[in-house]
Design a protein that fits this description.
It contains 22 helices and 33 strands. By secondary structure, it is of the alpha+beta class.
């Protein structure tokens, strides 16, 4: 077992660190204007702020969807207007198509079995037993022609039965002839389950039935069907030979779980050590053992055989187990084996999550406080939601374990007290997780109340936690760690609801004070991009950045520890894959490849792409002359910007992507190039074409996300086109937007990711409206603002030549690396002098100095055309003429046009007609 280790992080760039620490301390921004925006009207909250973390949506209610219909049928049988007798409706099983099998006690002393069709919302009577029987297990084949039931023998009790002593398993032909075949008559429990192939055909020629015995074996029956005397109905072909078709699938088990959606059977054997195996059933009715996984469990983990997701036995009292275990999978190729057990002689709960796709396991010990009087072992409810596994113990704690980013605890959300409430009405033991392929939600059955809920983590409650103020007695850094986990949980577990994203952006805008442990804007950008990209391939979560805390050199304890929770990590789970994947894109081939890649990436010390690595290449590229490499980089930029344009056809609120921003274009193209190289090196399996598409999408989504952030805050503060007018002062809303844009700039500089072209021009325009002129120039000097061609051009043309504006323009021109090309836009003596110097410099610099005259070394040293005063020009020209041997014969040595223009200029100045 290895203790959870902290990641080594890179140190911040000096200029970014300076900006983060002293942005508003050195210069002194009037904070009252920024804070005034906090009183603005908030965006609509996503639903009401709930008191529970889970959002429960009732999808099925036994009394609402079944009971009313059954009472109508019983009233028709009894020929009464209303039937008021006891029905004793019991849910028996839930099939792959969502059909719910149930039984009820009929009015005539019979037991009836029915089915509720979740798609048509209709009930159907399947079979009626002549007397009252106790159905402990039940399953219906895909064609709804065969019903398999396991009956508990009645020992004389009229109501609830005592623990059963015998079990009778029957295969009943329910349509059209009620033939019955006895499959087993044993002294132990038996579970039955039909296989449901993924086919659109309603009628099938063969059905396959699993029979699972408490004695620890699994048999598969192959039932052949045939048409009955030419009618369009199917019956058993050879019922007398049915027992001979039985095939032993599993020899021995102490725990078994059926996954109805994926048609997988997990079982646990114990022969010296616990070994988890999985049998995959395919649509062609073949099956194979595909996985073996050793597990570390207590020697007497299961005192009796435990069945999971194999129907509901209402006539057998389950013995309390020391260990609760369940397996969760995801279609992208992830598998989590979850186990929980209470600690001996301590008020602690121990639960482990084996991340097969990560080739590691994590064990948590949670202190529960005072022990309860209840002697039964406490087991939490385990719920897979998205790529989180929720461990919930009612009244104690709630832990959302991140199964993809498991390196640090700060990406898993741990709640206790009032926040740790899912809002479930019954105890955890009464709920069953119904496995589904949908990643964002899961179905949860409340068996005592007969209700099925669609469960999601509530965005409203997570937003409430995100906005909560630090509670008394808790350090700020611990609150920050919870906010970090909440932000990731909110982004990665919620659906693509744009209102949720708007609420997060508003929260980012309202939090003026930076957090101690992380940059929320950086986390928002990286987590949002990761959410978009990880669905393409599971291994992208090992290669793409998902959080900025990985780049920090030193991590605070709050990011690696949870108070009251001890976490240990064990590497290399020694999973063994068997058999062959039936298809290239199957779940098992993905899981096996993910596990192998995890081992490979453990050898590589830096598998995750770090955006900061682009900084050195970008700085070098900015100083180079145009080349083929630069053209290739700009070609990448064209692909990204063309994709951004195709995504948005509505009217753009914020003026971005409307100018040539060469530095940002180079950074966009370079980011594409370096990310492509990284993925081609570490993930060649995807192929170059798919990687190229993925990278272009990634960078385009990055630019689109930043624009979306600006548009959201633009709408929040109701800014209009006057924002780009330099002659008016800023409103409080513009102050808030300006500050938010500075925070985005700080976050993107820290990550070294590109900004949309036009961002710096817009930021400078807002800064000019918000800041005094001297403060604006200080922001430029401290590199918080960047002077772009677009901004300087508008500055020269839109502002008049008042004394203050002339001082500002001159200050801006002094700070430009190539200021001369902007002088022609400014009607000012400084502009005229500069134009004249350029003109003279071009004429003199282009002459052949070796003809007609020669300069001495001293003259060369002091001859600088770029700073030559116009008042000294006549003397210099006279000296040049005197040194010429014959200026009238060597006419090419003197530029007559140049002399005439210069003399005319000097004459006008002397006469006072033109200013110097």
């Amino acid at each position: 077992m290895y203790e959870l280790q902290s990641h080594q992080q890179n140190q911040e760039a000096p200029e970014v660190a300076l900006m983060a620490r002293s942005t508003f301390v050195i210069i002194g921004i009037p904070w009252s204007l920024v804070l005034a925006s906090a009183t603005n009207e908030r965006l609509p909250v996503v639903g009401a702020l709930l008191d529970h973390l889970a959002s429960l949506k009732p999808e099925f209610d036994l009394r609402r969807d079944v009971e009313a219909d059954i009472r109508g049928k019983e009233a028709a049988v009894c020929r009464v207007k209303e039937y008021s007798g006891a029905l004793d409706i019991l849910i028996l099983n839930i099939e792959r198509d969502g059909g719910i099998l149930y039984s009820w006690k009929g009015s005539t002393g019979t037991t009836r079995v029915g089915k509720y069709d979740s798609s048509s919302k209709q009930n159907k009577l399947l079979y009626t037993f002549d007397n009252h029987v106790c159905v402990s297990s039940c399953s219906l084949n895909k064609g709804e022609t065969l019903l398999a039931v396991s009956l508990a023998q009645n020992n004389g009790g009229e109501e609830r039965l005592k623990p059963i002593s015998r079990c009778l398993t029957l295969l009943i032909e329910i349509h059209p002839i009620n033939n019955t075949k006895v499959l087993k008559a044993v002294d132990c429990r038996v579970k039955v389950q039909f296989l449901h192939p993924e086919t659109k055909r309603r009628s099938v020629q063969e059905s396959h039935l699993l029979l699972l015995s408490e004695d620890g074996y699994v048999d598969q029956y192959h039932v052949t069907l045939t048409r009955h005397e030419g009618y369009k109905v199917q019956v058993l072909a050879n019922p007398e030979r049915l027992s001979k078709t039985a095939e032993r699938v599993v020899e021995e088990f102490c725990w078994v779980q059926w996954d109805v959606q994926t048609q997988r059977l997990y079982y646990l054997t114990h022969a010296g050590k616990f070994l988890l195996r999985c049998v995959q059933f395919y649509d062609n009715q073949n099956c194979e053992t595909v996985l073996e996984l050793p597990l570390e469990l207590p020697a007497k983990a299961f005192s009796t055989v435990k069945f999971v997701n194999l129907g509901f036995d209402h006539h057998h009292a389950e013995e309390p187990q020391r260990v609760k275990m369940e397996v969760f999978t995801n279609r992208l190729g992830s598998m989590c084996v979850c186990c929980s057990r209470p600690a001996r002689h301590k008020p602690e709960l121990i639960y482990s999550v084996v991340l097969v796709h990560k080739d590691c396991s994590k064990t948590f010990r949670v202190t529960l406080g005072q022990a309860t009087r209840d002697t039964a072992p406490l087991h939490p409810l385990l719920i897979p939601i998205g790529y989180y596994v929720v461990v919930y113990l009612r009244g104690r704690f709630l832990h959302c374990i991140n199964t993809r980013q498991q390196e640090m605890l700060c990406h898993s959300l741990f709640l206790s007290g009032d926040d740790a409430d899912l809002g479930l009405s019954s105890k955890s033991e009464g709920f069953t997780v119904l496995h589904a392929e949908d990643e964002s939600s899961v179905a949860l059955l409340d068996l005592p109340n007969g209700t099925i809920y669609g469960v999601q983590l509530s965005p409203a409650h997570l937003l409430q936690i995100l906005r909560s103020d630090p509670t008394s007695g808790r350090p700020n850094n611990m609150v920050d760690a919870q906010r970090l986990a909440t932000l990731h949980c909110l982004l990665l577990s919620s659906t693509n609801d744009p209102n949720v994203e708007l609420e997060i952006i508003e929260w980012l805008c309202d939090n003026v004070k930076a957090f101690e442990s992380f940059d929320p804007i950086q986390e928002f950008i990286l987590a949002s991009l990761y959410k978009i990209s990880y669905q393409r391939s599971l291994n992208l979560d090992k290669l793409l950045p998902c959080s900025s805390v990985f780049d920090r050199k030193e991590l605070p304890a709050c990011l690696t520890e949870i108070p009251g929770v001890l976490c240990t990590t064990r590497l290399h789970t020694e999973s063994v894959f068997k058999g062959k994947a039936r298809t290239v894109q199957s779940f098992w081939s993905e899981l096996q490849w993910n596990t192998e890649r995890t081992t490979y990436l453990d050898v590589d010390p830096h598998p995750r792409y770090r955006t900061s690595h682009v900084q050195a290449y970008w700085s070098k590229l900015m100083t180079e002359e145009p080349s083929s490499h630069m053209a290739h980089v700009l070609e990448n930029t064209k692909k990204v910007l063309s994709m951004v344009d195709t995504w948005r056809h509505d009217k753009k609120l914020v003026p971005l992507f409307q100018e040539e921003d060469q530095p940002q274009k180079l950074l966009i193209g370079l980011t594409v190039e370096k990310l492509r190289e990284h993925l081609n090196t570490h993930l060649p399996r995807l192929g170059k074409r798919k990687i190229d598409s993925l990278v272009i999408n990634y960078v385009a989504k990055l630019l689109e996300l930043i624009r979306h952030m600006l548009e959201s805050v633009w709408l929040k503060h109701k800014l209009g086109p006057l924002v780009l007018c330099f002659t008016q002062r800023a409103s409080p809303g513009e102050w808030a937007v300006f500050h938010f844009m500075l925070r985005i700039l700080d976050a993107t500089r820290g990550l070294c990711v590109p900004l949309p072209p036009g961002y710096h021009s817009l930021l400078a325009a807002l800064a000019l409206r918000c800041l005094p002129h001297h403060t604006f120039l200080q922001y430029v000097d401290h590199r918080f603002l960047q002077l772009t061609d677009t901004f300087v051009s508008r500055l020269m043309t839109d502002l008049d030549n008042s004394a203050a504006n002339e001082k500002l323009k001159f200050g801006v021109l002094k700070r430009l690396p190539e200021a001369n090309r902007f002088y022609h836009m400014w009607d000012h003596p400084v502009s005229s002098a500069s134009i004249s110097r350029d003109y003279i410099g071009n004429l003199l610099g282009g002459r052949n100095k070796n003809k007609g005259f020669a300069l001495t070394g001293r003259d060369k040293a002091r001859f600088r055309t770029d700073v030559l005063p116009l008042t000294y020009l006549t003397k210099v020209l006279s000296d040049i003429e005197e040194q010429a041997l014959n200026p009238f014969e060597e006419r090419e040595n003197v530029d007559a046009t140049f002399v005439e223009e210069t003399a005319l200029k000097q004459t006008l100045i002397l006469l006072g007609i033109e200013r110097k």
